[in-house]
Amino acid sequence: MLYVVIVFLCLSILLYLLLGGADFGAGIVELITPVKLREKMRGITYQTIGPIWEANHMWLIITIVILFVGFPSIYTMLSVHLHIPLLLMLLGIIGRGTAFIFRHYDAVKDDMQRIYNIIFTYSSFITPLFLGVIAGAMVGGKIDTEAVTFFEGYIRPWFNYFSFSVGLFTVAICGFLAAVYLTGEAEEKEIKGVFTRQAKLLNVATVIAGGIVFIAAEIEGIQLMRELVTNPVTLVILLLATASLVLLWHFLGQNKKVHTRLIAGFQVSMILFALGFHYFPDFIIVQGGNNISLYSAAALGKPIETLGWALLIGGVFIIPSLVYLIYSFQRERPEST
Question: For 104-126, how does the pLDDT look when each residue is reduced to its tens digit (9 = 90+)?
């Protein structure tokens, strides 16, 4: 059952980035959208992510539950040593969700709309930024379980070049995914063209941000680039992700909605798979070499078995329901008579 739990953990993280990350990316795309087109862009955003934006957080909740029940030592280490970026990320989620609802359903259209827009867009940037910062801190090797000062124990693990470079990389990925998804939803030629250009721009930004991650890793003494390139499996995965750029730009130019979404999801999945393959089974890289792996941190006995069955049974209901939810809101609504 341990492998079942690990598969669901990895799947939840991937789906949260692909679906929830695209939600955050909508705010990032809005930040770089021309002012005169933002109102139309918001209408498309409401139609696209409005029905399912809250459901996407289900994957984050599943991830937290799996760590809490199945890997308590990992959950404890994250919530203790990385509690500051975790808090900032959660504040971003709350601020973004609140602003999203109020600016859409507020009956009075006044100056508060401007405040809602600011909170929505900037919290959409902050949330994936600190999600990436947390991910970078988990593999950055600066978590010190023997720390004796506040800075060494709770600031240094995440307040560094590498963690923030991963944070910016995550922001770029989220914006890129959102632009690709929104391109397929836009019907007006002008705004579709804007989204297409933004998707290409953010795709380039993602590549550049990925390069910055490798540079920051070298600065911090992390041999990430060398280890990924010398491993034949991760090298092939990264080459596949890179080669798919050609197809992505080709289909973006032809407005192929399904093709571009599949390739964008493939690119992001390959990046995560390469990193996951490189670090597995380690989940947290600890200073001093006492890494926390999914095998050593797993709860013994009944907790893992019970959790595994709960995930299998729950998956039978949750995944088809989510697919149908997305499908039902993508269907064209009949004209009212």
Answer: 777 667 778 888 889 989 999 99
